[in-house]
Specification:
The complex is a heterodimer of chains A (about 500) and B (about 220). Chain A has helices spanning about 1-30, 210-220, 225-230, 285-295, 380-390, 395-410, 415-425, 430-440, 440-460, 460-480, 480-494; strands at about 35-40, 45, 50-55, 70-75, 80-85, 90-95, 100-105, 105-110, 110-115, 120-125, 130-135, 140, 150, 170-175, 180-185, 190-195, 200-205, 240-245, 250-255, 270-275, 305-310, 315-320, 325-330, 335-340, 350-355, 360-365, 370-375. With about 500 residues, chain A is an alpha+beta fold. The termini of chain A are far apart. Chain B is mostly helical and about 220 residues long. In chain B, helix 1 (about 15-20) runs antiparallel to helix 2 (about 20-30). Chain B is globular. The N and C termini of chain B lie far apart (about 80 Å). The chains are: A alpha+beta (about 500), B mainly alpha (about 220). Chains A and B meet through helix 9 of A and loops of B.
């Protein structure tokens, strides 16, 4: 009897355990990727997921037609404008990812026009839509209903070589209505058009990197004839791949790693830039280098296709090579990397565009023809809240969310540094040192230590003086003990 | 030659005396047979241990070490091996160019000469816990002093024991370093060759075992 009872009890326990295992498996299967970040030694460290896939919008669930090779999207007025280029239409979703409206056709003077390989979309403050129509070598400017009111063709200018085609792929507009267009093959930078759509100039070309190869070629070029020189490969700056504009007219641009003629090595990974309205890189070079040094292992095979700047101060980069999203904060600290290639919900095949709406990240996939929505997890919310406060300098207020982050995710170095900074500002140097050590920030640790040292000296000044004077006195006595001793002897002798 | 310039220091005091008066101390050691194997091992241990101590106890404001990659034994053996290699290389070379020192003398004097560097190193580790990052230049200065000091003692020691003049001593030091690389290369070569040989024999034995089983 007893034996039987034990047996059934054992069976039940086994079943419960099996169920628990099954449940845990199904829970972990919901997110097809593992998020990670890099610690200060360059080791990849798994972290809790900051984002999880919320839903996938494929078009058929909101309209009669599925998306076909959507190539770009843009978020404006809390609406998502999706350039559904395979279907020659523009689908507008509201912030709940339900259908808002569809611009079925692009009309030029009343006649419907097919979009040809169009790959870039932008919506300005008057709800005018700009489309970079690559196949027909023009930029189309439409109003809300889809009527084209302006076609921008190849600018006639001596700066624009005749042999170069106008192949617009991406575009943005700044607050002064200047239109920045990326044209493939145009290494001088982005093509800028002014308010009246006249060609204004080029903007933000990258620099040719000085390599040993480029230098030797330059040396030999001095001895060559004109014909020989023409046969040599030209060193031109790499083209900007994609860009995003902030509300203050600064442009974040990504440039794919450069290949140099004749060498298979990828160049330095200096491929994210923060351009001011004059076209100069404002992301201090060191910072950009540090950012990519963090990606030491990933960076060799990255192909960034899109960048989006979140007004909360986060920079999201989309890599098509491995289907990953890299999120940096304003100071170019890697917060998280997540995403993967595959067929599950939350993975991609050919990711082409990334956008942010609220605190959600949207990724458009050209091959799978769908839109994946990622929402913040609890950890993610804490991290974002803490970082937003922290980057505003509100260290004290950021302390509480940082604590929550550490509880969920003890591998997050920034959290320790954040708490350390708060403690440092309260002049609690000793605790701050502890946290900077955990955050492995030797520079901040050194500063906290300096504070602690002077505090210690101030508090124990008297003791230190007493000890020093006593030691000196003792030393003098011991050093002269013979003299003192002899004098005494002499006295006694007398 | 007995009684040549006796320094009145015992053989255990001599390594410390050699830090301040290298020429005198090494003469004394050579002609009055005051070499101490025990002290040389103490100095050797201090040197190899310094690397470990530096790794473990330097202030965090100066090095943020990756704890996963710290291996005390590896560090200790590496630094110890460098000294052994240096001594062997120097002995091998100087034997060719009529250096008078025996291997034992080279070992002892080399380790004596490391003493200033080791002591400076320990001072540096202690100071590194008091100084902040901006003051790190003092630590570098201490290291420089230590290296320079050790080098002076080492040259004096080799001049005395090999009976070289100074230019020849410095040249021999340079060649010793090259010799170290050569020895490492040869060791590596031997390692791979032996490995291949072992592999061949192991394959043959395996083959025989398998064939026996089949039959």
């Amino acid at each position: 009897m007893k034996k039987r009872f034990i047996k059934t009890a054992f069976k039940m326990v086994t079943v419960v355990i099996m169920l628990a295992i099954l449940c845990s498996v199904s829970v972990s299967a919901a997110i097809p990727y593992t998020s990670y970040t890099y610690d200060s030694y360059g080791n990849a460290v798994e972290t809790a997921d900051l984002y999880e896939p919320e839903m996938v919008v494929s078009g058929s669930d909101i309209s009669s037609l599925r998306f076909r090779q959507p190539s770009d999207m843009f978020v404006a007025f809390n609406k998502i404008y999706i350039l559904d280029s395979g279907n020659s239409r523009i689908v507008v979703l509201n912030e709940d990812f339900k259908l808002d409206s569809i611009i079925e056709q692009v009309l030029i003077e009343g006649t419907p026009q097919k979009l040809q390989k169009s790959s870039g979309i932008f919506v300005d403050g008057n709800k005018n839509i700009y489309i970079a129509d690559n196949g027909s070598n023009r930029v189309l400017c439409l109003d809300e209903t889809g009527n084209v009111f302006k076609e921008i063709l190849k600018p006639e200018s001596e700066y624009f070589s005749e042999s170069v085609e106008f192949l617009p792929t991406k575009l943005v507009m700044d607050s002064a209505s200047n239109l920045y267009v990326k044209s493939t093959g145009c290494y001088q930078g982005l093509v800028v058009f002014d308010k009246e759509y006249n060609f204004k100039g080029f903007y933000g070309a990258d620099l040719v990197q000085t390599t040993a190869e480029a230098l030797t070629d330059f040396f030999w070029k001095q001895f060559m004839t004109e014909e020989q020189r023409q046969q040599l490969a030209n060193y031109v700056p790499p083209e900007i791949q994609n860009f995003d504009i902030t509300s203050k007219d600064f442009i974040y641009s990504v440039t794919p790693a450069q290949y140099f003629p004749g060498s298979k090595l990828k160049a330095e990974m200096d491929s994210i830039r923060f351009l001011n309205p004059r076209g100069a890189d404002r992301l201090v070079n060191q910072m950009s280098k540090d950012a990519f040094a963090q990606l030491e292992y990933d960076a060799r095979s990255l192909t960034f296709v899109d960048v989006v700047y979140d007004e909360n101060g986060f920079i999201n980069l989309l890599d098509s090579q491995h289907g990953k999203i890299y999120q940096f904060d304003k100071n170019m600290n890697l917060i998280t990397a997540f995403g993967t290639l595959g067929d599950y919900k939350g993975s991609f095949k050919v990711p082409t565009a990334i956008e942010v709406i609220g605190d959600k990240i949207l990724v458009l996939d050209k091959e799978k023809s769908n839109l994946t929505v990622f929402k913040l997890t609890n950890t993610g919310k804490n991290v974002h809240r803490a970082l937003m406060l922290y980057n505003k300098g509100k260290y004290k207020e950021a302390m509480e969310p940082w604590q929550a982050v550490i509880e969920e995710n003890p591998n997050f170095e920034l959290a320790y540094i954040g708490i350390g900074n708060a403690l440092y500002n309260e002049q609690n140097y000793k605790e701050a040192m502890k946290y900077f050590e955990l955050g492995r920030d030797s520079k901040r640790y050194s500063e906290a230590f300096e504070g602690y040292r002077s505090q210690f000296l101030r508090e124990n000044m008297v003791m230190i003086f007493v000890v020093v004077i006593l030691t000196l006195g003792l030393w003098i006595v011991i050093a002269n003990r013979n003299v003192l001793f002899k004098r005494k002897m002499r006295k006694e002798g007398k | 030659m007995m009684g040549y310039r006796t320094s009145k220091k015992s053989k255990y005091q001599l390594p410390f005396y050699a830090m301040i008066h290298p020429t005198y101390a090494f003469d004394d050691m050579k002609y009055n047979h005051k070499e101490s194997m025990r002290m040389s091992f103490v100095s050797f241990f201090l040197f190899a241990m310094l690397a470990v101590v530096e790794q473990q106890f330097t202030g965090i404001q100066h090095i943020m070490r990756d704890i996963d990659k710290v291996n005390i034994f590896k560090t200790f053996l590496l630094y110890g091996a460098i000294i052994v290699l240096f001594v062997i290389s120097n002995w091998a070379f100087c034997e060719l160019v009529d250096g008078k020192a025996k291997l034992k003398h080279i070992w002892i004097t080399t380790n004596y000469a490391l003493l200033p560097y080791s002591l400076c190193g320990y001072a540096r580790v202690i100071l590194s816990n008091i100084l902040v990052q901006d003051e790190a230049v003092f630590l570098d200065a201490i290291t420089f002093v230590g290296v320079f000091w050790s080098l002076v003692v080492l040259i004096n020691a080799y001049m005395t024991f090999h009976e070289f003049e100074i230019s020849k001593t410095i040249l021999s030091l340079a060649i010793t370093v090259i010799g170290m690389l050569l020895i490492v290369f040869l060791l590596f070569l031997m390692y791979t060759l032996v490995q291949q040989m072992v592999e061949t024999i192991a394959t043959v034995i395996n083959e025989i075992i398998f064939r026996n089983r089949l039959n």
